[in-house]
Amino acid sequence: MIQRLSAEAFGTFWLVFGGCGAAVLAAGVPDVGIGYLGVALAFGLTVLTMAYAVGGISGGHFNPAVSLGLAIAGKFEYKDLVPYWVAQLVGGILGAAVLYVIASGTAGFTAGGFASNGYDALSPGGYSLVAALVAEIVLTAFFLIVILGSTSKLAPAGFAPIAIGLALTLIHLISIPVTNTSVNPARSIAAAIFAQNGALGQVWLFIVAPLIGAALGAIIWKALLSRSDA
After folding, report:
1. CA distance 129 to 131
2. Helices 35-58 and 2-15, interaxial angle, to 10°?
3. How far apart are CA 134 and CA 213, in angstroms?
4. Dihedral in degrees, nearest 10, Cα atoms 169, 171, 39, 159
5. CATH superfamily of 2-225
């Protein structure tokens, strides 16, 4: 079990450090910043690379919502849910902490939003609570459908990390302007801890909505899309 939990912690560390790091350190560099597209790709690449690196050890969840969805779909043991959540939270917070140390090494540093998620005034595009809630639920549901489909016996073997990484990239391309994209409570909590814009007061939505979305995605998969031999 220690190897599985370590894999989840390292994977979530990489997701937060790599994805949020791209947003905090590289997105806004004058003239050469990577922008929304680069940040979206960075998040996708973190999942793709760690799924290949440690996915065979832990299943490569790196996300409490994914763990819940897989449990509901019958692909993960409920008894392992809380230990996975703890490992993911620890890994994510450590990733954000290391990022904060690096980011604060420049003159005049202020954490600001620190790649945190938000709605209303904290939304990059000023989107409402309802818009944020719907976006996070729908996108997390589809994320679970992609995960379950690409890891089923009917899918080509060995390509699941690519499909999942590209799905997360697409999710970010859609929703960075809306919520700065969560679909992952561990990522949201980790960034909100270090943000200085009041993100902790809104982080509840980015815990609740992804968990609801993951549950819906798993239920839809089981009811409408899965086969008993897949």
Report:
1. 5
2. 180
3. 9
4. -20
5. Glycerol uptake facilitator protein. (1.20.1080.10)
Section 190-199 average pLDDT:
96
Residue in the block written with tokens 């079990």: 1
Q: pTM for the whole thing?
A: 0.94
Q: How many CB atoms lie within 10 A of CB 117?
A: 31
The Cα 164–Cα 26 span in angstroms is 23
User: How would you class 148 by CB atoms within 10 Å of its CB: exposed for 0-12, middle for 13-18, buried for 19 or more?
Assistant: buried
pLDDT at 228: 61
Span 203-223, pLDDT tens digits: 999 999 999 999 999 999 999
Residue 67: which of 43, 45, 96, 91 has the closest Cα? 91
